[in-house]
Design a protein that fits this description.
The complex is a heterodimer of chains A (361) and B (402). With 361 residues, chain A is α+β, with helices and mostly antiparallel strands. Chain A has 11 helices and 13 strands. In chain A, the strands form 3 sheets. Chain A has a 6-stranded mixed β-sheet. In chain A, strands 5-4-8-11 form a 4-stranded antiparallel β-sheet. Chain A has a two-stranded antiparallel sheet with strand order 12-13. In chain A, α8 runs antiparallel to α11. By secondary structure, chain B is mostly helical. Among the domains of chain B are: 86 residues; 90 residues. Chain B is 72% helix and 1% strand. The chains are: A alpha+beta (361), B mainly alpha (402).
């Protein structure tokens, strides 16, 4: 009797103070685009060890052991996770394994993909993993259908998640503006093209443009060509008519920045609007990648595309409006020329570095 | 290649310098954070074959078989697993084992009247998971049929105290004295006595019982209770001695370590508190570590804060309220966010009413200069002449607020 008392009495006193949080959580992150669902499930390594016995018994779970258990991991997930929409179930295709650090230690991540028989929003998630080994387990589900993410906590019963109900054109406009401002490669490209805009060619020399009107016309030509080019490729890439691997697109965009900047140093091509058009085609593929990352609502693809492109143009316009008056004001100074030369040289170097980094990644 | 131009006018120079500076800044930023707008979930990595992915508590083959038997309805197997898991939860301060204990009892978890041993284990798990109402129902049912179950009496005494039901707690502690001996009874009654203005008498009783006790585990536990009582009575020297004595018998006891760390932190000895908790993983100790590092402005402070913030964020995402007391302390003492601490401590007070919960709510209210937030604790303190200098000191400060 006494010995048994010890255990519970000690717990009784300590439990309310010492024990807290770090309970078992599983993470389900899903993105829906039309009828397609992609995502990932992260489950704690130590919980999976209890459920399907991954470790060889030495207490140190090695990647080799995880990799060897991949079929069992997949089978376990298939038995404990189901997605469905009103029209029927969405068969799961389970993919590569990885690890990811979480607040409560290492998780094993399993990539997944599913094709639903209808639009995947709303989506019902039937998550039942790990409850049998830990009754306090919770599945934290994050669902993004392109119009904003929703979250839900699974406690053992199916949960139905509804993404954004209305086409969030405004959100895509904002994303477009942000993308152009934060994506330094696009800003650099634009600046590189705009820098010589306040000059006109006089024989072998560059002279300050005599009137603002001429400068505006030049800038307008460059910006219009860039807009036209990237809009075309944004549409064809997002609609899936032309596909380029991101591994090609991202380094190519970096090279386009280097080329545009180098042109300021060598002055090989005078018609910068042509440079803007030809290389701008590449940037549209990059925009499309971002748009796809955001998760496209299948039914509202056109408004999303329109909104995102509008945002890109607005962001671009803001840069032009900030740049143009200032550049026009100081176009006669020597410092502007030196600055243009230095900035172009710097952009060549940095953009080449981007290209190498992106190729390596 | 550059064309000579008429020299620029002086007043335009600074505009240019500014522009060049801005451009350089943008380029440097671009170099530091190329393409910072990608996905939201942390990226996964694929380790090398021999890399250790995680330390996993080994599970013997016998334990696996026992789990299968428990799932199939074997009561004895279920009890054994749940007991072992509860013990582990206590030893490691790791609540995951509580979920595992509950899972072992899954077949009986929703039954209104499972066999008495299961009822007691269920109550214990519920209490540890802060389902005090559920634990109380189970214990009331068990004690109605088995009034002489010492464990159930002791557990209900704690649950009743948390729920501020002092009469039941006192009756249960008296029963514990009768059923399990003076040492258990004295330790059971000590916090109750302090909350009723009978601290000094309770301390004398507890000290005598410890001297006369023979059960080492009970003595260690009672010595921790004595240390806490000493703190409430304002004798930190005696409290430190008692807590260190208890630790000598049970060096890894999370509760005692946390109590001593608090004493050291309050005494302005954060370096000693840091040494004491070491790198132990239990959340209660991680909190004290973060506070100590913060006070010392030590290099690891930011990392400790980030790790703890991540744990609290994960807990909040799953929507649990297990950790409100600790969250409030974290918000107040590490993040310096008094308003958030008032909210957490107030929510905690609604669930749990122990001296530590009162203390953090008063601290938060003081920091936020929010006298109204402290009102529930002040009302609770008025109900009895509480022997707790930690609380009376804070009450005076709160009452001095405008």
């Amino acid at each position: 009797m006494r010995a048994a008392v010890v255990v519970v009495a000690a717990l009784a006193l300590t439990a309310s103070g010492a024990v807290a949080h770090t309970q078992s959580d599983g993470y389900v992150e899903l993105t829906a685009a039309g009828a397609e669902v992609t995502g990932r499930v992260d489950l704690a390594a130590r919980d999976l060890e209890l459920a399907i016995d991954l470790d060889d018994g030495d207490g140190a779970l090695r990647w080799r052991e995880v990799a060897a258990a991949a079929p069992r991991l997949h089978a376990y997930l298939r038995d404990h996770l189901a997605l469905r929409v009103a029209a029927g179930p969405c068969p799961l295709v389970l993919g590569a394994l990885g690890t990811v650090p979480r607040a409560d230690g290492a998780h094993l991540a399993i990539a997944l993909r599913a094709t639903c028989p209808g639009p995947a929003d709303p989506l019902t998630v039937d998550y039942r993993a790990l409850f049998a080994v830990d009754a306090q387990h919770r599945g934290l589900i994050r669902f993004d259908s392109g119009a904003g993410a929703t979250v839900a906590v699974a406690r053992g019963a199916p949960v139905t998640l509804v993404g954004g109900a209305r086409p969030a054109v405004r959100r895509f406009v904002v994303e477009g503006v942000w993308h152009i401002w934060r994506g330094f490669d696009h800003v650099c490209f634009l600046i590189a093209l705009l820098l010589p805009g306040v000059f006109v060619r006089r024989g072998r020399r560059l002279a300050p443009a005599p009137t603002l009107g001429g400068v505006v016309r030049d800038v307008l030509a460059v910006v219009t060509a860039f807009t036209l080019a990237h809009s075309i490729t944004l549409v064809v890439a997002t609609m899936g008519w032309v596909r380029l691997a991101p591994g090609v697109v991202e380094p190519a965009i970096a090279l386009s920045v280097a080329a545009a900047a180098a042109n300021n140093l060598t002055r090989t091509v005078d018609a910068r609007w042509a440079v803007a058009f030809a290389l701008g085609l590449l940037h549209g593929f990059g925009f499309s990648g971002v748009l796809t990352d955001l998760g496209l609502p299948g039914a509202t693809l056109a408004p999303a595309l329109f909104g995102f492109n509008l945002g890109v143009e607005l962001g671009q316009l803001a840069i032009v409006l900030a740049f143009l008056p200032l550049a026009f004001l100081v176009r006669r100074t020597r410092s502007y020329r030196v600055g243009m030369w230095l900035a172009s040289a710097a952009m060549v170097v940095i953009a080449l570095d981007w290209a190498v980094t992106r190729l390596a990644a | 290649m550059l064309v000579p131009l008429p020299r620029g006018r002086g007043r335009q120079r600074w505009v240019l310098a500014l522009g060049a500076l801005g451009l350089a800044g943008a380029l440097i930023a671009a170099k530091v954070a190329p393409g910072a707008t990608r996905g939201r979930a942390a990226p996964t990595t694929i380790p090398t074959a021999d890399a250790v992915v995680a330390e996993v508590p080994p599970l013997a083959a016998a334990a696996r078989t026992a789990r299968i038997r428990a799932a199939a309805g074997d009561v004895d197997a279920a009890i054994a697993i749940a007991r072992a898991a509860i013990d582990r939860a206590r030893a490691d301060g790791d609540p995951r084992y509580l979920g595992q204990a509950q899972a072992a009892l899954a077949r009986w978890w929703d039954e209104p009247a499972p066999p008495p041993p299961l009822l007691l284990l269920r109550a214990t798990i519920r209490q540890a998971l802060h389902d005090f109402a559920g634990a109380r129902v189970d214990l009331d049912r068990l004690l109605a049929d088995h009034p002489d179950d010492a464990q159930a009496r002791l557990t209900r005494a704690v649950v009743a105290q948390v729920g501020d039901d002092r009469a039941t707690a006192a009756a249960d502690c008296a029963a514990v004295t009768r059923l399990a001996g003076e040492l258990w009874g004295a330790a059971c009654a000590a916090p109750l006595a302090a909350a009723a203005g009978a601290g000094p008498a309770a301390r004398a009783r507890l000290a005598t019982a410890i001297r006369g006790g023979r059960d080492a585990t009970a003595a260690a536990w009672a010595t921790t209770a004595l240390g806490e009582l000493d703190r409430q009575l304002g004798d930190d020297g005696a409290a430190e001695l008692a807590l260190r004595t208890a630790l000598a018998a049970a060096p890894d006891d999370v509760y005692t370590l946390a109590a001593l760390a608090d004493l050291l932190l309050d005494a302005g000895r954060p370096a000693e508190a840091l040494t004491l908790v070491g790198d132990r993983a239990a959340d209660a100790l991680a909190l004290r570590r973060a506070i100590a590092l913060h006070r010392l402005a030590a290099p690891g402070a930011a990392a400790a804060r980030a790790a703890l913030a991540a744990r609290f964020a994960a807990a909040r995402a799953r929507g649990d309220d297990l950790h409100l007391r600790e969250r409030a302390r974290f918000e107040l003492e590490v993040l310096g966010d008094a308003r958030a601490a008032v909210q957490s401590a107030t929510a905690g007070w609604a669930i749990q009413r122990e001296a530590a919960d009162a203390r953090i709510l008063l601290d938060a209210a003081l920091a936020a200069r929010d006298r109204a937030a402290a009102a529930p604790v002040l009302a609770w303190m008025r109900r009895a002449a509480i022997d707790d200098v930690q609380l009376t000191r804070r009450r005076a400060a709160v009452e001095a607020l405008p």
